[in-house]
Amino acid sequence: MARIPKQTASEADGVQYRRARTWEIAFSQLNNGSAMVFYVLVGLMSYLQNAGYGIAVAVAGIILTVTRVFDGVIDPLVGLVIEKVRFRFGKLRFFMLTGWAIRSLAILMLFVWGSDAGLGAAFFIALYIVYIIGSSMNDIAGQMSGPVLTNDPRQRPTVQVWATVYAYLIPSIFTIISTVVFLPRHANEFTVGMLRETAITYVACSLVFQILACIGVARVDKPESFAHIATTKKGAEVSVRDMWNVLAHNGPFLRYLISGASDKLAQVVKSQAVIGTLMWGILLGNMQLGTTLSLVAILPGIVFAIFGARYTGRRGSKAATVTWTWICLMLAGVLAAFCLVVDLRAVLGSLPLTIVFFLVYLLLNGASMVVTVAAGAMRADVIDYELDRSGKFLPATVTATYNFVDQIISSLGSTLALGAVALIGFSTVMPQPTDSPNTAILLMTILLFFGLPILGWICTLIAMRGYKLDRVEMIEVQKRVASRKTELQAEAPAEAVA
Q1: The model's pTM
Q2: What is the DSSP annotation of 146-205?
Q3: Which stretches are transmembrane (predicted)?
Q4: pLDDT band (50, 70, 90) for residue 1
Q5: Most confidently predicted of 28-37, 41-50, 117-126, 437-446
Q6: Most buried among 131, 184, 211, 231, by the most CB within 10 A?
Q7: CA 366: distance to chain centroid?
Q8: Based on the number of CB atoms within 10 Å of its own CB, is 460 exposed (0-12), middle (13-18) or buried (19 or more)?
C-alpha cells in the first residue's frame, strides 16, 4: 500500500505560505550569536570600568543601569529609521553590518585603544552610548529576519529554536574561553591586558557570525519583502504615530507585551547574582550548583525547544503559550512547596531528594523553553496582524517597541532584587555563600525564585484570555494579506498602462 504524503501547511490551510530553507534560518539567527559574543564582553564591563578607567564599583553599576534605560529609549527611534529607509537591495544586511561595525568600533575603543590611557569616565560613557546605538541597529535588524524569511506556521517556531540554541551555547562557550584560556595567561586576574586580548578575539569571531547571518538573509533582503498593502501612498508612510497606533489599536500586541514584560521581570530578578547566592549558596550550601545546573540544562533545554517548535507549529502560538504556561505554573508550585517542606541543606546529602529536586528543576527549565519558542512565533504573528489591520508591514516598529519595554523592565531587575534582600537584613553588606540560612532568607528566596515567575505566568494566562490570534485566526489573517497583495499586483500593470 502506497504511503500518502503528508500535507504541507500551504495545502492544509489553503494559503501559499512563504518558506525559508533550513540553512537560511540557521545562518540568519547567527546574528543573535554575534550579539551573544558582545553580551559576554558587556559582562566584563564592570572589570573594564575599574581596571581601565578607574571608575569606582558603585558608580560603575549606576552607569550600566542608566545606559540600559537609554538603550530602551533609543530602540524606537532606530526602529523608525529602519522602517522609513528604502534601499534597492533591501535593508537587513545594511543595518546588521552597520550596527555590527559601530558596536565593534566602540568595543575596540573601550577595551583596546582607550583602556588604561587616563581618559576617565566621560570617555567611557560616550563610547558606551555609541556601542548601544550600534547594538540597537544590529539587534532590531536581526530580529526582523524571522518574520521576513517565513510566515509558514509550522516553520516559524524553528526560527526561535535556532536563536535559543545560539543564546544558550555561544555565551557558555565564550565565557569558558575567557576564564579557561585568557584568564590563566594573565595570572588569573582581569587585567587591562587580559580584557584587551579577549575583546580583539571576540570581535573577530563575531564578524564570522555576522557574515554568515548576512548570507542567510540575502535571498529575502529585497524591497518587496518589506512592502505595505495600504491603499494609498500616504497611508503606507511610516511615522512616529504608527508606534502609538500599534500600542493603542493592536490588541494582540498589547497582550503579548504584558505577557513578555511580566515574564521578563521575573527572569531578570531570578538571574541576579545576589538571588543565586541566596538559593544555591546559603539555602542549598553549594554555590557552584547553580552554574553546574545551567550547563547541564543546555542539552535538555534544546530538546524541549525543538519539541516546542513542533508543538507550536501544530497548535499555534497562543495554544502553546497557554498550555505550557500552565505546566510551568504547576512545576514551579511543586518546587516551591518542596523547598518549604524539605530542609534544603539536606537535599544534596540525600540521593532521592537530589533526584526529585534536579528532575523537577530541569523539567521547569524545559517547559519555560517551550513558552520562549512560542513567544518568538507570537511576535511574528502580531507583525502580520498589524499588516492586515493597518496595511503596514512594521517588523522594526513592533520589535523596537517591545525592546523598549523589555529594557526598562530589565533595568528594574537589579533594583528590585537588592531592595528585596535589604528587607531581610542585608542593607549594608551583600549576602555571602557562607551565611547561615534562616526563615526570612528562605521565604524571600522562594518568593523571588519561584513566586515572582508564578506571578508572571498568571499575568500571561490573563493576557492570553483576550488574545485572538489563535491558529484559525492566523490562517484567515494570512489569507486576507495574500488576497490584498494579489489585488495590488493586478492593479499595478493597469496603472502602468494608463
Answers
A1: 0.86
A2: HHHH---TTTHHHHHHHHHHHHHHHHHHHHHHIIIIITGGGTTS--HHHHHHHHHHHHHH
A3: 25-47, 53-82, 94-113, 119-140, 161-183, 199-218, 265-283, 289-309, 321-343, 355-377, 408-429, 441-464
A4: very low
A5: 28-37
A6: 131
A7: 16
A8: buried
Q: How far apart are CA 53 and CA 51, in angstroms?
A: 6
Q: How far apart are CA 495 and CA 490, in angstroms?
A: 9
- How far is residue 180's CA from residue 60's CA, in Å, rounded to a whole number? 26
Cell of 466: 483576550
Measured CA to CA in angstroms, residue 176 lies from 43, 182, 249, 300, 322 at distances of: 13, 9, 46, 20, 36
Counting beta carbons within 10 angstroms of the beta carbon of residue 207, is it exposed (0 to 12), middle (13 to 18) or buried (19 or more)?
middle
pLDDT band at 236 (very low <50, low <70, confident <90, very high): low
* pLDDT band at residue 58 under the 50/70/90 scheme: low
* Closest to 106 (Cα-Cα) out of 122, 129, 136, 137: 129
Residue 55's CB is within 10 A of a number of other CB atoms, namely 21
Q: Which of 314-323, 383-392, 432-441 has the lowest mean pLDDT?
A: 432-441
Q: 3-class DSSP state for residue 232?
A: coil
Angstrom distances, CA of residue 76 to CA of 31, 299, 380: 20, 35, 18
**In angstroms, how far is the first alpha carbon of the chain from the final one?**
57
Q: How far is CA 46 from CA 67, 222, 251, in A?
A: 13, 41, 40
User: Residues 320-333, buried b or exposed e (16+ Cβ, 10 A)?
Assistant: bbbbbbebbbebbe
Backbone Cα Rg of the chain: 24
Domains delineated in the chain:
21-221 (1.20.1250.20), 237-481 (1.20.1250.20)
d(CA 124, CA 129): 9
What gap in Å lies between CA 477 and CA 235, rounded to an integer? Answer: 20
pLDDT tens for residues 159-188? 999 998 998 889 888 888 887 888 888 877
Reported as a single tens digit per residue, the pLDDT across 382-402 is 999 999 998 889 999 888 888
